[in-house]
Amino acid sequence: MTKAKLTLIVTPIVFAVGLWGVKILLAPPISEATIISSVPVEQIAQSASKDLPDISDNYQRHMGVLDTLKTP
After folding, report:
1. Low-confidence residues of the chain, pLDDT below 50?
2. Which residues have CB under 8 Å from 59's CB, separation 6+?
């Protein structure tokens, strides 16, 4: 492949990538984040039982590592 043919192939590619890079730098794409809640967290919290065991007691019960930290 001669240098002229290679130049004819590479030049448009470099030009297109350069234009794309300038466009991205000057006007980046804008994304819009929204919260889509499919689980009614407030309703679950209100309907939860009020007499649940303490989380630290439950955690220590299932993690044998923390047995030494239990207070009498």
Report:
1. none
2. 66
